Amino acid sequence: MKQITTILALLIAGAAWSSTAFAEVRIATIQSQRLIKESPQYKKMEAQMKADFERRAKELEQDGKSLSEDLQEFKRNADVMSAAERARTEKDLNTRRIDFNYAERKFREDVAAREQELAQKLMNQISEVIEAVAKEGNYDLVLQDPVFASDAVDVTGAVLSRLEAAK
User: Fold this and answer.
1) pTM exceeds 0.85
2) Which of 8, 75, 118, 131 has its CA 20 to 30 A from that of 137?
3) N- to C-terminal Cα separation, the chain
4) Is the per-residue pLDDT at 12 higher than 70?
5) Whole-angstrom distance, CA of residue 93 vs CA of residue 119
C-alpha cells in the first residue's frame, strides 16, 4: 500500500512538473545604452539641453575670464596701489570670486536637475515602448543588457523603430 501511494505521488508530481517545465517561455533582450543613444528622443533632449543652457554657460565662461584677467591685473599692480585701494580691490575681487563660484555651482545644479527630469521622461517613454513591443511579441520576459544573447531574441531594433515612429 505504501508503495502504491509513493508511486501515485511521484506520478502526480511528475505530471505537474512536466507541464510547467515544458511550457515555452518567450524571452527578449534589449540593449539599453543603444536604445538611449540612438533614440530620436535622446537627440531631441540633447538639443533642448544645449538650447536651455548654452547662453548661461557662455555668460559664466565670460565672467570667469573677466575675473581671471582682473586677478592677474591686481597681482601685477598690487605693489603700486595704495593700501586702501589694494584692500578695496582685493575685497571686490573676493566678492566677485564668491559670486562666480556660487553662480557656477547653481548652474551645474540646474543642469543636473534638468538632465534628470528629461532623462526620467525619456526612460518612461522607452519603458512604455518596450512593454508594448513585449506584449505584441507575446514575450514573457524582457532582459536588459544581458552578458550574451542571440540576435534572434534582441528586440532593440523593434523598440528603436517604435521610438522613431513616436517622435
Assistant:
1) no
2) 118
3) 70
4) no
5) 38
Give me the residue spans of the domains in the chain: 25-165
List, as one string, the DSSP characters of the chain. -HHHHHHHHHHHHHHHHHHHHSSPPPEEEE-HHHHHHH-HHHHHHHHHHHHHHHHHHHHHHHHHHHHHHHHHHHHHHGGGS-HHHHHHHHHHHHHHHHHHHHHHHHHHHHHHHHHHHHHHHHHHHHHHHHHHHHHHTT-SEEEES-SS--GGGB-HHHHHHHHHHT-
- Per residue in 82-92, pLDDT (tens digit) is 999 999 999 99
Enter the C-alpha cell of residue 109.
545644479
Cα 69 vs. chain centroid, distance in angstroms?
A: 37
Please report the sign of the dihedral spanned by the C-alpha atoms of residue 147, residue 150, residue 155, residue 157. Answer: positive
Which architecture does CATH list for 25-165? 2-Layer Sandwich (3.30)
The tens digit of pLDDT for each residue in 28-40 reads 999 999 998 999 9
HEC letters along 107-150: HHHHHHHHHHHHHHHHHHHHHHHHHHHHHHCCCCEEEECCCCCC
Average pLDDT of span 52-56: 92
